[in-house]
Amino acid sequence: MNTHFKAIHEQYVFWLETLGFESKKEIEMLNSDINVANTRITNNNENSKRYEEEIKELNTKIEELQEEIKQKQEKKNNLRTNKEKFEEELKAKEEELEKISSKLSKKELEIEEHKKVVDEDTDKKYELQSLISAENVKAECGDPETDGCRDARLYAGDLLG
């Protein structure tokens, strides 16, 4: 073989080997990049599924909270309506109570007046009973010197004054 040809051939083999080494290295790097990309894709898909589930849960919770707000608003409206109704009823009851109280106050005053009259009549009754007893003692004891009648006369005299 020709030395020149031999030198070219050696150079050609060297280039092929160098190119092969570099392309293997590039292939390995590209495969590594592909593996990293595949891992990222897998993670992104998992995250995407998880986020979709979280979104569904949050949407459900939002719907529940909106329903709760609606119910509370309805309750608030009912309470406002009931408050007005109860205030009107309370006002009517207070007016009725005032009327009854004024009637009761008048009746209480009448009763107090009757009590005074009854007390006065009771006092007069006891005074009259005392007078009657004293008169009865005087009537029974004709002789002022009798001992039994003397004590009764003293008692009657005390009552008569």
Q: Flag low-confidence runs.
A: none
Radius of gyration: 62 Å
Instruction: Give the mean pLDDT.
Output: 81
Cα shape: rod-shaped
Helix and strand pattern: HH
β-strand amount: under 5%
**Count of runs of 4 or more consecutive helical residues:** 2
Number of strands: 0
What separation lies between the terminal Cα atoms? Answer: 181 Å
Oligomer: single chain
Based on helices, strands and strand pairing, what is the structural class?
Answer: mainly alpha
Major sheet characteristics: none
Helix amount:
over 70%
Can you describe this structure in just a few lines?
With 161 residues, this protein is an all-alpha fold. 94% of the residues lie in helices and 0% in strands.
Structure commentary:
The protein has 161 residues and is mainly α. 94% of the residues lie in helices and 0% in strands. The chain has two helices and no strands. The longest helix is centred in the middle third of the chain and has 138 residues. It is rod-shaped, with a radius of gyration of 62 Å. The relative contact order is 0.03. The mean pLDDT is 81.
